[in-house]
Specification:
single chain, 584 residues, alpha/beta, TIM Barrel, six-stranded parallel β-sheet, five-stranded antiparallel β-sheet, 22% helix
Length: 584
């Protein structure tokens, strides 16, 4: 294989040496301790590797930290984190190390959740780290030739886990859906705590009734900015080289939103009854629904919807994103996205579910595909065809285009053109926002090209430290909307840190500001939507996903650090988009 060049400069915090390995199927850069056999990272919470990309490509770079005895092919495995690095850019890739908040003294059998509580014997040991590896997916050699390792730095003290005896671990979920074996600020201990929390938030909302967005019109657009054509509906326009949404009043609009704005999903009890304290049957546990009834009363939906709308205004959020409930959107105080969560029953014969990620790509050649979609679109049109508060329409979510092989581009062209034709007939006044292409398994240029031809806005669910994707060569000039992103952290009763990890609540808030700020600086991005409104059940939703990724907890308590980060960002949203200010 071709020689791989890897430049390096030692960081003051962690001196290192560079080796290049080209053996096997995974060419890689190895970073080793300089002047010692191993690094002692036993007291370190996070390692950050700054990588520079001198190429015209945007490779996804992965970093793994190898403690003693760790292997990618067998347990114990090293922690691995990745990030796409844009052309001619530098990105720090942060790898969490000692961040486990809870452990049992002996193994405890847990099921139905992605992230679990490990036993003490299974905790990773980073006292002797012999190497850090940096690599990219194939073709690796060309990408590695342009990568430079600029520094290695450590951050945050190690988390020392709370050790819980396995014999007393069960049950571990209380009647409010919280972890029983820990305490934290904002945890609910009794029904009376809900009333106190509601009163405290009521006072805060009354004091912060106005949006932090300066000169905001009723939609959250920029009334203090240039006046453009007002069509009575949302549209797009490119102004001074930057793409924008334009609200119904003709004001520039940048979409800062949250998706999954509803009371969450249940966690399974059947077969796991021992997990739950006080459950008298095996029916699904809906912790948020039950907690909202305790907080707002038996008829909780109206006050919950009212509180949600007031929160969004006070927090500086101007969009209800994909997946939401009509009784919240029907108040018409925050622009919302319509979700036609259309997974056609007519799966494409070219789609190979064993190889693909994401949802099945529909059979675009079947007449049933367009007919089924038209029926759904017409149903929604009867409800909100002329609603100016509807920002636009998403159809489908994270389709597995990688399962279509060489036909992916051809199928994507038929798919997006058919969906556009159906939507523009049923909902002619609303933007077509695409299918929320996932950054990890939607990286097929032909799919993006097809989406750019037919979508008004190309949507991308982009989980990374920073946004890093742009339309490929051959695509039409269209705006991009981040349909999902988030950062989570372990603790406060959660065993998971979500799809992209932060060390703690303050670090999550910092990453939020940084991510949205980078979107505001990019001329193509017209919005970013956080996933999601409520934390997921820590015992796992229907598929076991148990992320602490909400703006509010499972007990409907706002996460204050994230709220303040959102308010600070919203306060500068339009000035920064115009390039007049910069949020550090």
């Amino acid at each position: 294989m071709a020689a791989i060049a890897a430049a390096a400069t030692s960081a003051a915090q962690v001196p290192f040496a560079v080796r290049v390995r080209g053996d096997g199927d995974r060419p890689r850069i190895e970073l080793a301790p300089a002047g010692a056999e191993a690094w002692d990272f036993s007291g370190v919470g996070e390692v950050r590797v700054a990588v520079s990309n001198a190429t015209d490509q945007a490779p996804r770079v992965r970093v793994a930290v190898f403690g003693e005895g760790m292997s990618l092919d067998a347990s114990p495995k090293p922690p691995v984190c990745g990030s796409r690095i844009p052309p001619h850019a530098v990105r720090p890739i942060a790898v969490p190390l000692n961040v486990t908040p809870y452990a049992t003294d002996e193994p405890a059998a847990l099921a139905g959740m992605w992230s679990k509580v490990p036993a003490m014997a299974d905790l990773p040991d980073f006292g002797k780290v012999g190497r850090i590896e940096v690599w990219t997916p194939l073709p690796a050699s060309a990408c590695l030739q342009g990568l430079s390792i600029l520094s290695i730095a450590t951050a945050f003290p190690a988390c020392r886990p709370k050790i819980i005896p396995a014999t007393s671990f069960f049950p571990f979920c209380d009647r409010y859906g919280q972890f029983m074996h820990d305490d934290w600020p904002g945890k609910i201990h009794s029904d009376a705590d809900f009333a106190a929390a509601r009163d405290a938030e009521e006072a805060w909302l009354a004091a912060h009734a106005a949006s932090p967005i300066p000169d905001a019109d009723q939609y959250g657009g920029w009334a203090g900015g240039p006046q453009l054509e007002a069509t009575g509906f949302f549209r797009t326009e490119k102004v001074d080289g930057k793409w924008w949404l334009v609200d119904p009043e003709g004001h520039l609009f940048w979409s800062l939103g949250v998706c999954s704005v509803y009371p969450g999903l249940p966690t399974k009890v059947a077969g796991r009854e021992s997990n739950f304290d006080g459950r008298t049957d095996s029916s699904d546990f809906w912790p948020v629904y039950e907690n909202l009834a305790r907080k707002y009363g038996k008829d909780w939906r109206p006050p919950y919807a009212e509180t949600t709308q007031r929160r969004f205004r006070a927090w500086g959020l101007n969009t209800i994103g994909n997946w939401n409930h009509h009784y919240i959107c029907d108040l018409r105080r925050t622009p919302y996205c319509l979700c036609i969560d259309f997974s056609s029953k007519t799966v494409s014969p070219s789609w190979d579910g064993k190889k693909a990620h994401g949802r099945a790509v529909p059979d675009v050649d079947s007449p049933k595909f367009a007919a089924d979609l038209a029926a759904q679109a017409e149903k929604w049109a009867a409800r909100m065809k002329d609603d100016p508060w509807c920002l636009g329409v998403f159809v489908d979510n994270e389709l597995g285009w990688d399962g279509c092989g060489e036909k992916a581009g051809e199928m994507a062209e038929k798919y997006y053109s058919t969906v556009r034709a159906v939507l523009k007939k049923a909902l002619p006044n609303h933007l077509y926002l695409g299918s929320r292409i996932h950054n990890d398994f939607g990286e097929i240029p032909a799919v993006w090209v097809a989406a750019s031809r037919h979508c008004d806005v190309v949507s991308n669910n982009h989980y990374d430290f920073l946004p890093s994707y742009d339309l490929p060569d051959g695509a039409e000039d269209k705006p991009i909307l981040i349909g999902e992103f988030h950062f989570g952290y372990k603790g406060n009763g959660y065993f998971s840190s979500g799809l992209v990890a932060a060390f703690d609540a303050r670090e999550r808030a910092r990453r939020f500001r940084e991510y949205v700020g980078a979107c505001l600086d990019h001329p193509r991005y017209v919005g970013a939507h956080w996933f999601q409104y409520h934390d997921q059940p820590f015992t796992g939703r229907f598929d076991g996903e148990n992320f602490p990724c909400g703006f509010v907890s499972i007990t409907d308590i706002p996460h204050s650090e994230l709220v303040e980060a959102c308010r600070e960002t919203a306060a500068q949203i339009y000035e920064r988009r115009m390039g007049r200010t910069f949020v550090p």
